[in-house]
Design goal:
Shape: globular
Helix content: over 70%
Domain CAAX prenyl protease 2/Lysostaphin resistance protein A-like: 145-241
Organism: Roseovarius gaetbuli
Structural class: mainly alpha
Number of helices: 13
Order of helices and strands: HHHHHHEHHHHHHEEH
Keywords: Hydrolase, Membrane, Protease, Transmembrane, Transmembrane helix
GO molecular function, one term: endopeptidase activity
Pfam families: Rce1-like
Strand order of the largest sheet: 1-3-2
Radius of gyration: 19 Å
């Protein structure tokens, strides 16, 4: 079976496969994350002088400054901590069981990362639709100065989402249900709906949901196919690297982007024009990783 490797992630979940455990773990993890996030915000306000914090706050909300982006990325560390505690308390599982064997996970991550980088180099040489060419956004020296912290924060962000949706939810559901339609489908729907943000994206909110759902399916398939979070994390990392650190829409999470697109996240025509391109890149990334890992 093409998903035989998935058993290495599912096996540790079988002792607590009942849905009551999953619900309990999700509730406890969510509550812990809210508490930790509040504490994180309070600590930041103590670290920054009040006048500096007042200037930073608007840029943190939409991540329109380098510090604003970093603050938004590092909050995902609170999600990792919350999940690790909930996993231990409710499921008596070690956190590493969500990732898979660390040796294979690391090797798969590196090989998938190289495949994605090659793909993105090719994509960056292709012409964009007329009038949508990126414009300079952040000075290269400033970008380079923040890059080490940005890469750490970006990895924390994508890893947190992968351990929650592909590591935890997918493995626990797969321990209870045999059909991939459930254990890939449900986490993908949840991942998609958490990206629903009409206050930010306006009428484009459902476009973002559609793409996030497709990404969830691709990441879930890679996780089940190769038995670790390495491939899905690489797919996620390079996708977000391009969207956050290379080119971002104006006025939304563009604080650390070298370039910005000449449109905002509320521009419906631009979003729909880019949707087929984004879907094609996602499909090519999924296929490139499969070829690189021969699965």
């Amino acid at each position: 079976m093409r998903y035989d490797a998935h058993d290495s992630l599912v096996a540790p979940a079988r002792a607590t496969a009942r849905l009551t455990y999953l619900i309990g773990g999700a509730v406890l993890g969510t509550l812990l994350f809210l508490v930790l996030s509040y504490s994180y915000a309070q600590i930041l306000q103590l670290v920054f002088p009040s006048d500096v914090w007042a200037r930073l706050s608007p840029s943190i909300e939409n991540a329109t400054s380098p510090v604003g982006v970093l603050v938004n990325l590092f909050i995902f560390a609170m999600l990792i901590i919350a999940l690790a505690v909930a996993l231990r308390v409710v499921h008596k599982r070690r956190f590493v069981t969500l990732v898979g064997a660390l040796g294979p996970a690391s090797r798969q991550f590196r090989r998938a990362l190289v495949a994605m980088l090659v793909l993105y180099v090719v994509i960056m040489m292709l012409p964009l639709p007329e009038g949508m060419e990126p414009e300079p956004n952040l000075a290269f020296g400033t970008w380079l100065k923040f890059l080490p912290l940005a890469l750490i924060g970006l990895f924390i962000q994508v890893f947190a989402e992968e351990v929650v949706f592909r590591g935890y939810l997918q493995s626990q559901l797969a321990a209870r249900f045999s059909s991939p339609l459930i254990w890939i489908g449900v986490p993908s729907i949840g991942f998609a709906l958490l990206h629903y943000d009409p206050a930010t994206f306006g009428t484009n909110a459902w476009v973002v949901v559609l793409w996030a759902g497709a990404f969830g399916i691709a990441a879930g398939d890679l996780t089940a196919r190769f038995g670790t979070l390495g491939p899905a994390t690489a797919l996620h990392f390079i996708n977000n690297f391009g969207a956050i650190l290379i080119t971002a829409p104006q006025g939304q999470f563009d604080g650390l982007a070298l370039y910005s697109y000449p449109f905002s996240v509320e521009d419906g025509a631009a979003f729909w024009a880019f949707m087929p391109i984004d879907m094609m890149i996602l499909a090519c990334g999924w296929l490139a990783i499969r070829l690189a890992l021969r699965g």
